[in-house]
């Protein structure tokens, strides 16, 4: 399968560290899950990154993510993060997955993360806002279609025209935009999670 040019997929490549690269401003999605990465570093070369998957590595702390000012979705599930420093998380985050890390057992963990990330829509596969909030107030996601839908960021079979059509359909419909965008990201992360589980447990049907 051909990946969109805005996507880099290097999962399950036995990578132990993220090296320094030249500026790759065209990259919106980066998949590095199921490697041996111990440290988050050298991601400043991806200034327009929207989706970052580092699940299933050996990362012990969240750091060096502040240069990713446009990051919307971050999957750090199943690492070795014991204590979470929310100041290291980009304010732009709308989806965050830290399941399988010791830090999720910190006292007041969920409240702490929600207070630090005002734009967050989903934390550890659980929505952060009820449907009743959709009718009132304003949200930055209503004006950030490109942040939420940066184009095909999934490594799976997704036609580029689908995203273009989706953008046109959602134009001018802020409430519907919020629901459908969240559903799309939930489906994307769920598919990624299911594939990861199959890799970890090959006996599953």
Largest sheet: 7 strands, mixed
Question: What letter string, H or E per element, gives the SSE order?
Answer: EEEEEHEEHHH
Would you tell me the overall average pLDDT?
Answer: 77
Q: Enumerate the spans where pLDDT stays under 50 for 5 or more consecutive residues.
A: 130-174
- Give me the side-by-side strand order of the main sheet: 1-2-3-4-5-6-7
CATH superfamily grouping of the domain at 7-128: Ribonuclease Inhibitor
Given the helix and strand composition, which structural class is it? alpha/beta
Instruction: Give the terminus-to-terminus CA distance.
Output: 23 Å
Number of beta strands: 7
Fraction in beta strands: 5-15%
Using the CA coordinates, give the radius of gyration: 17 Å
| Morphology | globular
Supply the CATH class of the domain at 7-128: Alpha Beta
Helix fraction, binned, reads: 10-25%
CATH architecture level-2 label of the domain at 7-128: Alpha-Beta Horseshoe
Count of individual helical segments? 4
Question: What is the fold named in CATH at topology level of the domain at 7-128?
Answer: Leucine-rich repeat, LRR (right-handed beta-alpha superhelix)
Subcellular location: Cell projection, Cilium
GO cellular component, one term: nucleus
Keywords: Cell projection, Cilium, Coiled coil, Leucine-rich repeat, Repeat
Main location: other
């Amino acid at each position: 399968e051909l990946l969109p040019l805005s996507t880099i997929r290097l999962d399950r490549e036995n990578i132990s560290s993220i090296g320094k690269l030249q500026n790759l401003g065209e990259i919106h999605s980066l998949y590095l899950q199921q490697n041996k990465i111990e440290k988050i570093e050298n991601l400043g070369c991806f200034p327009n990154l929207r989706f970052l998957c580092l699940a299933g590595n050996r990362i012990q702390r969240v750091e060096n993510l502040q240069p990713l000012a446009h990051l919307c979705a971050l999957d750090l599930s199943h690492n070795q993060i014991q204590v979470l420093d929310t100041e290291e998380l980009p304010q732009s985050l709308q989806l965050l997955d830290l399941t399988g890390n010791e830090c999720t057992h910190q006292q007041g963990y969920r409240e702490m993360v929600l207070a630090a990330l005002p734009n967050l829509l989903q934390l550890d596969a659980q929505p952060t806002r009820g449907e009743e909030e959709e009718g009132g107030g304003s949200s930055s996601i209503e004006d950030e279609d490109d942040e939420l839908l940066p184009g095909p960021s999934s490594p799976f079979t997704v036609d580029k025209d689908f995203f273009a059509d989706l953008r046109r359909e959602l134009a001018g419909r802020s409430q519907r935009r919020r629901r459908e965008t969240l559903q799309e990201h939930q489906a994307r992360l769920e598919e990624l999670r299911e594939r990861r589980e199959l890799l970890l447990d090959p006996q599953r049907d």
